[in-house]
Amino acid sequence: MLLIECPYCGARAQIEFTYGGDATLSRPGDLSAVETKEWLDFVYLRENPRGPHIEWWHHSAGCRRWFKVRRDTLSHEISATGTPDSNLGSGSV
Ligand SMILES: [Zn+2]
C-alpha cells in the first residue's frame, strides 16, 4: 500500500487520493493569441517520464484539497509533497 503525505492532513492511504496529472505544465496564454496547435499540445500531449515526476494529487476522500507530489515513476517512492504554491523542483532527472 502506498502512503501519501497530504500537506494538510498527514499520511493517508493512496485509496483516499486521485491522481491529477503533470504539475509542471503551464497553461498557454490568452486563447485568442495562442495558436491552436499550442492548445492541442497542452490539452492532449503528455510526457511519459521515467524517474522523478512532479504531479497533482487530490485528497478526494479527505480534505478535498489539491497538492503537489514528487514521485518516482519507477519505484513509486514519494520524496516530497507540498501545497500548490510549493516548489518541488523540476521533477526530471
Ligand atoms: Zn488532506
Structure notes:
- This protein has one domain (3-82): Folate-binding superfamily (Folate-binding fold, 2-Layer Sandwich).
- It is built from 1 helix and 6 strands.
- It has one helix spanning 36-44; strands spanning 3-6, 10-13, 18-22, 52-58, 66-72, 78-82.
- Strands 3-4-5-6 form a 4-stranded antiparallel beta sheet, with no helix packed on it.
- β4 and β5 form a beta hairpin.
- The protein is globular and about 45 Å long.
- The mean pLDDT is 92.
- The structure holds zinc ion.
- Zinc ion binds at residues 6, 8-9, 59, 62-63, 65.
- Residues 6, 8-9, 59, 62-63, 65 line the site of zinc ion.
Question: What is the CATH fold-level name?
Answer: Folate-binding fold
Radius of gyration: 15 Å
Oligomer: single chain
Number of extended strands = 6
Strand order of the largest sheet: 3-4-5-6
Bound small molecules, which ones?
Answer: zinc ion
CATH homologous superfamily classification? Folate-binding superfamily
Q: Can you give keywords for this protein?
A:
93 residues; mainly beta; Folate-binding fold; two-stranded antiparallel ribbon; globular
Quick rundown:
The chain has a single domain (about 5-80), classed as 2-Layer Sandwich (Folate-binding fold).
Which helices and strands occur, and which strands form pairs?
Blueprint: E1 3-6, E2 10-13, E3 18-22, H1 36-44, E4 52-58, E5 66-72, E6 78-82
Antiparallel strand pairs: 1-2, 3-4, 4-5, 5-6
